[in-house]
Specification:
13 helices, mainly alpha, MetI-like fold, 2 domains, single chain, 274 residues
């Protein structure tokens, strides 16, 4: 009976791995095909060609689009963590009336779909003069990255020993010194977790990037991939699309593999106590 359970368990694991990894594997082997080979259903690669990757960068400013995504996602992570840590200190360590209500309000903001706030955000971006500007994307992305960051970091901040803060206060440390010198070194798992999830959310965001940008020079990679076109409006260069998908997905996979231990520890630490 135990052997049957073990076989069933490993069979389920293999099925989940195949189900999860097969689309990305097929995208990789398709990105190295060209011509009529793109439309053949073959699961093992027979030839490799980087023509799709070369054509991708020659036909449009895809390198600029990647740089835009890196700048926007990096800025969103820095702003989210900077504001999130200070907000987490206030919500997790300072006692004041309405603290729980404020925290629930911050979390409830992330429950609204992007479409529901799209028109209002568009008017805000336009009134600030940030339309077709990377700064406008950074501001709009904070709507869905900052609430999650504040919530996770607040939960983690509450679990830190009170004695550490009291010792810092006795030594004459200001709240800012307490946050940066005492708490942040202990919060690295939570910071890495929230920072990486915020980066992934900003990197993959499509609706705001499509609405608030107008030119190729300001577009991010999700919009650039969606606007890849062929020789006619009825023809899509699937090889270029697959190559672009592989290029933008590999960095995320590498980052997750590098920080996977800190991600797990950060999520676990933030979920132990409410």
């Amino acid at each position: 009976m135990a052997i049957i359970k073990r076989i069933a368990f490993y069979a389920l694991v293999i099925f989940i791995l195949l189900f999860s990894l097969f689309p990305f594997y097929y995208a990789i082997i398709t990105s190295f095909r060209s011509g009529s080979e793109l439309f053949k259903v073959e699961y093992l690669p027979h030839s490799f060609s980087i023509a799709n990757y070369v054509s991708l960068f020659e036909s449009q400013p895809f390198g600029v689009n990647i740089l835009n995504s890196v700048i926007v996602a990096g800025a969103v992570v820095v702003l989210s963590l900077g504001l999130g840590v200070t907000a987490a200190y206030a919500l997790g360590r300072v006692r004041f009336r309405g603290r729980k209500t404020l925290l629930l309000t911050i979390l409830s903001v992330s429950m609204f779909p992007q479409v529901a706030v799209l028109s209002g955000m568009f008017e805000l971006i336009r009134s600030l003069g940030l339309y077709n500007n990377l700064a406008g994307l950074c501001l709009s992305y904070m709507i869905f990255t900052l609430p999650f960051t504040v919530w996770v970091l607040t939960t983690f901040m509450r679990d830190l020993p009170l004695e550490l803060e009291e010792a810092a206060i006795v030594d004459g440390a200001t709240p800012w010194v307490t946050i940066t010198k005492v708490f942040m070194p202990l919060m690295w798992p939570a910071l890495v977790t929230t920072g990486l999830l915020a980066f992934i959310a900003a990197w993959n965001e499509f609706l705001f990037a499509l609405t608030f940008t107008l030119t190729n020079a300001e577009r991010t990679v999700p919009v650039a991939i969606a606007l890849i076109s062929g020789a006619s409006q009825y023809e899509l260069p699937w090889g270029n699309i697959m190559a672009a998908s592989v290029i933008v997905t590999v960095p995320l996979i590498v980052m997750v593999l590098i920080f996977q231990r800190r991600i797990v520890s950060g999520l676990t630490a933030g979920a132990v106590k409410g």
